[in-house]
Amino acid sequence: MAKKVVVTSPPPIVVPKRPVRAAVTMLGDRKMGGEFFLDNATPLHEGPETLLELINNNSRTFVPFHTERGTLLLNRLAIRIVEFDSPEVVAAFVQPDNPFIHDLRIVLRTETQELSMQGFCHTGELHPQSRRPADLLNTPDAFLLFYSTGTLILVNKAGISYASIE
Length: 166
Known about the structure:
By secondary structure, the chain is mainly beta. The chain has 2 domains: 64 residues, no CATH class; 84 residues, SH3 type barrels, CATH 2.30.30. The chain is built from 3 helices and 10 strands; from the N terminus they run E-E-H-E-E-E-H-E-E-H-E-E-E. Strands 2-1-5-9-8-7-6-10 form an 8-stranded antiparallel beta sheet. It is elongated.
């Protein structure tokens, strides 16, 4: 009689991540709430991965987004805006006399109208000789971090019709 061979698969690898609650508006104006999950560490710098890093990661076309209905794989370039909260990031925008904070008005084009947003951008992570809002808008990153009316917003730069420095 032949012995029965039992094949077991190894346990799944679990990478600890931290949830970040967000409201996403897709192209076509579909809106949904849920969570992105970010790495607790990144090779880019000390500390955890940021939502901006996840969304601007060119090695990923789709990013997981967990909703009440389940997990969606969002095409990151089909995302129009992501609204989220991060006290650490907000602190940079509300710090008095921060020379890297610039007033900026952006106008987004949608399928039905233009949407104007007044707020601030942060240029502190750019090269010291290239820290103007225009330099930030012209980086190869797909998304711009924007602060408006107390809300952090990641804006898909491909959807910006124009910007003006206030």
